[in-house]
Amino acid sequence: MGRKEFFRLQWLGHARVRAYAIILGVCSLASMPWMFADAMRPGGSDFIAFWSASRMVLEGQAAKIYNPNALGEIQLRVAYADIVPFVHPPQFLLVIWPLGFLNYAAAWLSWTAATYALWLITTRRLFPTLGWPIAAFPGALVALWHAQTGFLTSAIQAVIAWQFRRGPFRAGLCVGLLVIKPHLAVLIPFALLASRSWAAIGGAVLSIAVTAMASLVLFGESSWLTYPSSWAVSQYLLETGSDAFFLRQVTIYAMFRAWGWPEIAVIAQSFVTLTSIFVIWKVWACDGPTDGKVALLFALTPLATPYLFSYDLPFLVIPVAWLIQQFQHQWSKPILVAMYFAPLACRAIALPVGVNPTSLFCIGMAVCIYNVLKESRTSG
Known about the structure:
GT87; about 70% helix; mainly alpha
């Protein structure tokens, strides 16, 4: 084997990919006891916001979940150092309220295991031949460490991709579930409008309405009346966050904010968001494989929002896996391997280097997907 063939990873076949993925998965699991111990210490995990909100619901205090002081009283039961506010919409309570039946440690473990399993099942359904590489996806490891919403929202995104194969209305119903983290769906309305998917739009509206009504009936109108007060918390964090806070995010806005350029951050983010909308509109308005359009949609999602953390990225395995099935470039294997490891690698170097390059990786991935779609239209 020559040097060029070696660096093109011609030796990396299906059997070796599977074996390396198993090794990677085992090594990833080895980190979990340390992460669990870290999460149990005071100030160790933002998951405390979910657990304390669910406890308040079970204690009949759903009206106070957006009151930081009331939430902090619950968090003190596990000796938490700082108050971690609950900022998700009331629909999210439909998912997390059973956590309140468990103690904090058991809730953390149950949430992590259940949401990881949900993400793995839904994503493997899209790509059944890539089971082990999906299970060991480095972007999922970051979510596993944080016990946040990344697996749940990424599972919803996987179901959206699956349902687009079956019917737009069902896909729309799933789109509505992303209301629990709406900035992950910022590009979807433009995609649906461009493709004139009225059934999907109707499904999304219906889904949002039903979940809103269910949360209103179960948790009371006070939770909805006080929810807007949480917006000020998010705005405050965006305006005053530290460099470390922004380096843990994956957006263009955060990248420039970490460099101390707030005005340029707004301008750059606005430009990239508008460009992403333009590209999505152009692609979804034309004929082409729906799976590829969805892959492009998810690749551009981290670019379209100013607020997104590294633990939200398990869904990026969908555009990576789609490219694995489609990409025929002579350097495709090295490129795909780089994309596969990028979410974890970018997060790992962010704090030491002072820049989180995830957004640049997403641009490169989106360009690859766009070119594949363009070539398929040309050849078709």
